[in-house]
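Let's study today's protein:

:::
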Amino acid sequence: MTDYLARAEIDIEATPERVWAVLTDPEQLKELWFGAEVETDWVVGSPITWTGEWEGKPFQDKGEVLEVDPGRLLRFTHFSPLTGQDDVPENYHTLTWTLDGSTHLTLTQDNNGSPEEAEHSTGMWTTLLGKVKSAAEVI
């Protein structure tokens, strides 16, 4: 595990409950996760999978739900075979979504291999948070 952390934050003009709904609804998730189908029951210990296509290549990413506190915190692991790394625990990232009362959403991703990898992930997650904001503020 490395100390390189990717971090993205955004303020959203919606209730934490509305943002939570966006983060956990299968239809919303497909839009957020670049077209991938996300499957899980959001129960701690349950698997989570992302199935889709990236740059013409089919993929299935996977992880495990670690912590669920509706409207406040969502934490799960994530591994993508597209990285070319071995499917071993030290190559999994932990994604932590934190909502506060004013609906400030923070996403952190640990275990990035370098500062450049963390910077790339931060850019990707910043884009995704913009999509969460747009979806949550619709209603």
Remarks:
- The domain at 4-136 is CATH 3.30.530.20 (Alpha-D-Glucose-1,6-Bisphosphate; Chain A, domain 4).
